[in-house]
Specification:
Layout lengths: L5 H15 L6 H24 L16 E2 L8 E2 L7 H18 L8 H20 L3 H10 L1 H11 L4 H34 L8 H6 L4 H18 L8 H8 L2 H26 L1 H6 L1 H20 L4 H22 L2 H32 L15 H15 L5 H14 L6 H27 L6 H4 L6 H19 L2 H28 L1 H12 L9 H4 L4
Antiparallel strand pairs: 1-2
Helix pairs in contact: 1-2, 1-4, 2-3, 2-4, 3-4, 3-11, 3-15, 4-5, 4-6, 5-7, 6-7, 7-9, 7-10, 9-11, 10-14, 11-14, 11-15, 13-14, 13-18, 14-15, 14-17, 14-18, 15-16, 15-17, 15-20, 15-21, 16-18, 16-20, 17-18, 17-20
């Protein structure tokens, strides 16, 4: 079955819906229309899963009409598709769309039309990032996500929303502008080398271009810097807690579930295959930063009094595992990093949703203001315990699969010092259990502390509809991860082949190595070492 234009529909349906929403007469009509549009986008994305050819998952699938994006004189094209890496992230994006609309149903009470319009524009940008196979098109979608997220935080956020929104924009924009410089330079260099002198940002033509070693290092730094801010990697993480805490619940779910994955996806999609030698030379540095983020994020989470801030810092720790797995560059570690992106989006997204539900009931996020509420809200407590245990990596739930594969793959990596870093990273698993169980103990168990907690209502039908599918996925991914891993495995194998081939070519093409070989050829044979003829017995 062919789905020639299905990706274009999935990408731009929310944008079209945002334009049509301008005509919605009431707030209720706005909410219903947003729910219909996001649900339609999710249903449209399901054929991608059922029609995906796992046997050729390393290749681009469902590519639509390829046409020039700017002009015929520049090889910048509208080229979208999915492979084994991007399929799961596209499905995660469309899956979270209706959930975010539903969680905002009663939370957003002012200017709701603007809020939902921005949500739909944001979904177009996020989906486009994971589908774009032209680097400049990727950059356009990457930047498109910045504008609506800025307004979602700045208008509907908490008391320090302006500060958090500006910090988010400044950090992200600095990184992405540096990446644009690298894209332009790479496009001209690749155009001269493999495209007849025509500037190109076609992903596959750039992939066929063996970037010279002298150029690789600084281009890698510019790309990796932009993505490290987006992840965020320590020490570029300081914008994240402020953005999470000040954002409305829906904004936090999108931020944790999808936006942060744009950074880790960019590292896998661009940094490793475009600049394999430079990525290898920076492996130790990035591995150290990832491990610092794992341990630091966990320790700072334990020190928080605000439940939402605790969950925010936990993202720094969990995504440190993903970055470590990416730069370990083994099949298991890359597989683990990809599945952990999905797992983090589900389990941490659920934690933000539940903290938001508690905030709507008590208008406080301080853990000290709760206590013993498992007695008054047992159903909500069940989902909170499940999400916390999944985030802590309990075997049988989704978080365990990704972290286990990352640690196994990283420990078997040939990268220098990776075994030591992996051993230190396992502390993050222990510390995650500490701060998450501590949060559960303070908020949900023990004696009921106040009358407000005693009278707190349990989940309603809308909230059950939000949390039930996320809980199901936590269990399903934990018990049956094979169907999801099979989708990304061929793409991971292909990535490793490309990296190995390019690194081997770089060694052959290394001018210093060539000079050493020439000198060795000119050296006379040693007088103490017999030649092949001399070593043979003479007749």
């Amino acid at each position: 079955m062919e789905f020639a234009h299905i990706l274009t529909a999935i990408i731009f349906l929310p944008l079209i819906g945002a334009l049509l929403m301008l005509l919605a007469p009431t707030d209720r009509a706005v909410r219903l229309f947003a729910l219909i549009v996001t649900t339609a986008a999710f249903l449209l994305s399901l054929p991608l899963w059922f029609g995906f050819d796992v046997a050729s998952a390393a290749e681009l699938q469902f590519n639509v009409v390829d046409f020039p994006l700017i002009s015929e004189t520049l090889d910048v094209r509208y080229l979208v598709g999915v492979d084994g890496f991007s399929l799961l992230l596209v499905l995660l994006t469309t899956f979270l769309g209706p959930i975010v609309v539903l969680c905002s149903w009663s939370y957003i009470k002012e200017s709701s039309k603007g809020y939902y319009i921005l949500l739909l524009i944001l979904q177009t940008g996020m989906t486009g990032v994971f589908c774009a196979f032209d680097v400049l098109l990727f950059y356009i979608f990457f930047e498109l996500t910045l504008i609506p997220m800025y307004f979602l935080i700045g208008i509907w956020g908490g008391e320090r929303r302006i500060y958090a929104a500006l910090k988010f924009v400044i950090y992200t924009m600095v990184g992405s502008l540096l990446m644009l410089v690298a894209i332009l330079y790479l496009g001209y260099a690749a155009g001269n080398a493999v495209n007849g002198g025509v500037f190109t940002t076609n992903y596959f033509k750039l992939l066929s271009f063996d970037v010279p070693l002298g150029m690789q290092s600084w281009l890698f730094v510019l790309f990796a810097f932009a993505f490290a801010i987006k992840v965020p990697v320590f020490p570029f993480h300081t914008w994240l807690p402020d953005a999470h805490v000040q954002a409305p619940t829906g904004g936090s779910v999108i931020l944790a579930g999808v936006l942060l994955k744009m950074g880790t996806y960019g590292l896998v999609r661009f940094c490793l295959p475009f600049f394999p030698s430079a990525s290898a030379s920076h492996t130790v540095l990035i591995g150290i930063l990832a491990v610092i983020g794992i341990v630091y994020g966990a320790l700072v989470s334990r020190a928080q009094s605000d439940a939402k801030k605790l969950v925010a810092y936990s993202s720094v720790s969990h995504l440190g595992f993903v970055v470590l797995g990416i730069f370990a560059v083994t099949l298991e570690s890359i597989q683990g990093a990809m599945i952990q992106m999905i797992n983090h989006g589900i389990s941490t997204g659920a934690l933000f949703l539940i903290v938001g539900m508690l905030y709507e009931r008590r208008h406080t996020r301080l853990m000290a203001d709760y206590g013993g509420i498992a007695k008054s809200v047992p159903v909500l407590t069940f989902f909170m315990v499940l999400a916390a245990l999944a985030s802590a990596g309990l075997p049988g739930l989704n978080g365990f699969v990704g972290e286990f594969l990352i640690l196994v793959g990283a420990f078997s990596s040939d990268a220098p010092g990776m075994q030591v870093l992996t051993v230190i990273a396992t502390l993050g698993v222990i510390l995650a259990a500490v701060y998450l169980l501590w949060m559960l103990s303070r908020m949900f168990f023990g004696p009921l502390t106040t009358e407000s907690n005693r009278k707190m209502p349990d989940l309603n039908v809308r909230e059950l509809v939000i949390l039930a599918p996320m809980a199901l996925l936590m269990i399903l991914l934990g018990l049956m991860p094979q169907p999801f891993l099979k989708v990304s495995e061929p793409a991971a194998e292909r990535l490793l082949e490309v990296i190995e081939q390019k690194r081997a070519y770089a060694e052959i093409d290394d001018p210093m190595l060539q000079r050493r070989l020439e000198l060795m050829e000119r050296m006379p044979p040693s007088s103490t070492t017999p030649s092949a003829d001399e070593s043979l017995p003479q007749p």
